[in-house]
Amino acid sequence: MPFIFKLFPFGLTLGLLFQASAQIVINQPAIDRWMYPFNGTPGTRTVASTFSALPDPFSSTNLDDRMAQLLIKFDTAAAGIPAGQGVSAYRPESIRLKIRFADGANIIYDPTDDARLTMVANGPPDSDAGRPILLHGVGFRNAWTAQTFLENSPYSPSGPFGIRNAYAMGFDSNGIGRDLSKSVTQEIDDVPWAVGQIPTRAAGEAMVIYDWVEFDLRLSDPFIANYVKQGLNAGFIWLAVTSFHSTAQQSSQGFPGFFTKDHPEQALLGDVAPRLTIDFTPAPLVIESFQRFPASQEVEIRWAAQPGFVYQVWTSPDLRENSWTSLQSLTVPSAQTSVWRGASASPAAFFRISRSSP
Ligand SMILES: [Ca+2]
């Protein structure tokens, strides 16, 4: 992402040559956790399934509507998007999660959300076959945070029937995060952040092992976009996969399971774990000042530098392709103004500052 500005004998032109969109693919999460009340080995399950206690109501089971959830944390800082730039500096364009279907007999692909009342006993019939796979953010409670919650952290402070420490989260109309684990019981008509799509299948077809289920986050929603920006600023993004496949009606056969990074196939082949693709526009490189000192025949350039990037100052007499000479390469430990000052005998020269990930 080079930026060029030019010095002419009688003036100065600053120019932003181009600002490319960047893409980062994270092929394995830092954490993928089956968040299920009776999971005896949290964090190491090779397959994480999603299902509901409904239509048996919470009042009789004391179990969440979204009983089994898949929680996933991607480390975006380690993947090359520098953290700590300030929330407004992040400009995500698209966020795509992909998870891979591992097991579950006769799981019908349903690419659209289902009405809430179709989940309850004696409710209206589901208008299309199957149940969709749903995506949300993650909220934390009971002194746990997005920073401290781990793969093997406890489900709740008080066992399987306690209130879960981490949960599928959506925003209300004021942008306040709320637990959606009992969204049907609590009569919350939530719009999921994304509904899983399988481009290779038609609606109503049965899902097949190794199918990739794709989720494109609804970044047009400002609350969701802000959640992503805050995550990038912190250096990681948490996501929750849920579904309303009913175990009460269909026992152990009727719900989907998805590969986790802990599955042996991930170690062998590396292509089954959840993965995240982030398209984003990097914050612009801002030149703060440019000066030439005729007496000393020196040039001074000041620019706003951010940690996590390598900056390189270049010069060329004529812009020809192989004419660029590197003058300095540097990184900064924190956001600050960087200064390059050096000799420039000619009153006409070109300078360029490039920015790249380490
Ligand atoms: Ca349906």
Category from helices, strands and their pairing: mainly beta
Radius of gyration: 26 Å
DSSP strand tally: 21
List the secondary-structure elements in sequence, H or E. Answer: EEEEEHEEEEEEEHEHEHEEEEEEE
Can you list the ligands bound to this structure? calcium ion
Could you explain the architecture of this structure?
Helix content is 8%, strand content 36%. By secondary structure, the protein is mainly β. The site of calcium ion has 6 residues, from loops.
Keywords:
4 helices, seven-stranded antiparallel beta sheet, disordered N terminus, 36% strand, elongated, six-stranded antiparallel beta sheet, binds calcium ion, 358 residues, mainly beta
Give the gist of this structure:
The chain is mainly β and 358 residues long. Helix content is 8%, strand content 36%.
How is this fold's topology laid out?
Elements: E1 2-8, E2 11-14, E3 22-26, E4 31-35, E5 47-49, H1 58-61, E6 69-75, E7 91-103, E8 133-140, E9 166-171, E10 177-179, E11 194-195, E12 212-216, H2 222-234, E13 236-243, H3 247-250, E14 257-259, H4 264-269, E15 275-281, E16 287-293, E17 298-305, E18 310-316, E19 325-330, E20 336-343, E21 349-356
Antiparallel strand pairs: 1-2, 1-21, 3-15, 4-6, 5-14, 6-13, 7-12, 7-14, 7-15, 8-9, 8-11, 8-13, 9-10, 16-17, 17-20, 18-19, 18-21
This protein binds calcium ion.
